[in-house]
Amino acid sequence: MSHFFRSEISSEIMQEMNEAFIKPYLRSIPLRREQQFLETFSLFQYHLNDVAFNLNSEAKTFGNNSEKEYFDFTDAEKNQFQSIQEEEKDLMLSVRWHLKPEQSKKKMSPILEIYSGLYEYFSDYCKLVANYLSSLDNPFYFTAEYTTKWKNYTMSMQIIGSILKEFSSAVNEGYNLRFKEHSGLPDFSIWRMMTKIWHEEVFSMLEKKMLASFELSFESYLSQFSTKIQGHIDEEIIPKELIQASDFEITTSISEFWQSVVDMGFNERTITSLTFTDMSEIKPISSFWFAAKELVERCCKSVTEAPQIRPSLKFEQIVEYTDLIESIIPFKTFPELQEVLLEAQFNIIANFIAEKKNESIESISKLITGEDVKSMLEFVHSEEIECKYPALLQHIKHFQSNAENFEEVKLHRETQKSKYLLQSTVKNCRVQMLLVNYNNQMDLSSLEESKI
User: Is residue 118 within 8 Å of residue 193, measured between CB atoms?
Assistant: First the structure.
């Protein structure tokens, strides 16, 4: 890549970019105002927060005296960049929207050559990562390593974005001059280019393996840390040496993997809706969403329908599942999981009451939800119930508290969504979504639709 930049800076730039991949580090955090903080759950989502408010290293408004200044283009070089030949106009559009460059034997304009070199450089790195990850057989190690590689890549894209900030600026300026009739948002950026390449070369290639590994690791986690009802622990999933490690390490690993999947479904336009979006409708999150929901339903069913387990222990097991699951997937982003667990709690209590009390399901429901307090107290304090299910009153109150929390979460999500729709200026047209999403394939015909 030495011929892409002036000789006096090319070696330094390459060295800095290689270092960014080999030894990634967290960059300094920009100053934020209170309204510039969004609720996020991963390093990449935190990055999107900064991009949304133009606080990222590639933004024109970003300024930090502690940041190293790498290089700048001369006016002559900028003019040369902007002198795109007529036959290269389609190539320039491809560069601007992070498309894979077409192979050409002809000498290209400098900006196109640099982009082609960078695309090949990032692609080669991602292919190496994908090959390494695909060689890992153990599902838990695979998910842990994927998360680590993605976090490191996120740090690398921020560093490299800072290194190549002027290149990004030159691309945007040249595009805006030559293609005024086309959409100019979002800006070209190194971080988006690198994210799209990661999605294409790593995530898409490993998506099936990621889904299967997540299901196995998540189920093994629930079995491993269940203390009420001892389940079978498959030591081939969570290795023996880790089973004896702290639960925090394992919980954090699976939780961060979940968020790494969520990362692929959000961008700087949609990150503000993270905590109230229906993720079952967002690709590529949806397949993982359904897998998690089905797993939780299956676990709940295995407990509620087990005839040999007494009702009080069933209820305690579901409560334990609730705590374990929320430590992996926040209910505020996936309330449907909390709803499944609440339904299981309700059914356990309702089935027990139905066996002891000849009442309609409506009456039993009122007793459990607190609408008929008198009947509830009479029932739980009867001699038979105090003998057979002494914790029933405590469990009913626990269910009621969880149900109230669930309704509050739903209300908060609806309030946030309504506020977002009122304030949002984002046009969710097909082309706009193609421009900002990492998993959509933009083509030149679609770009024609973006003309103003």
Answer: yes
